Amino acid sequence: MRRRLSIVLTLLTVMMLGVIVTGLSFGEPGAAPMDDYFIENSQSESGANNVVTAVLFDYRGLDTLGEAAVLFTAALGTTLIFRRRRDD
């Protein structure tokens, strides 16, 4: 019974994610004025040769740290849920 419930929940989750992904829309590349700012000023302001690195670690450093903390917490929680317990 528990295995069937897991399969049903997994299928429902996959279907829900499929509906969400098909509804996504993306903007035109280069449409935001901030794009040009980052491309022109990232190396001089941050010293990074890669624009993506400059944005992740210099412009949005605290946000990236928060995302890493959330991922770590999710991985830790998943590990604690699925670990095997010893019967003493």
TrEMBL record:
Matching InterPro entries: CPA3_Na-H_Antiporter_A, MrpA_C/MbhE
Domain of life: Archaea
Transmembrane stretches, start-end: 7-27, 65-82
Entries under Pfam families matching the protein: MbhE
Alphabetic keyword roster: Membrane, Transmembrane, Transmembrane helix
This protein's record includes keyword Chaperone: no
Signal peptide: none
The MrpA C-terminal/MbhE domain, residue ranges: 18-86
Listed name of the protein: MrpA C-terminal/MbhE domain-containing protein
Source organism: Methanocalculus chunghsingensis
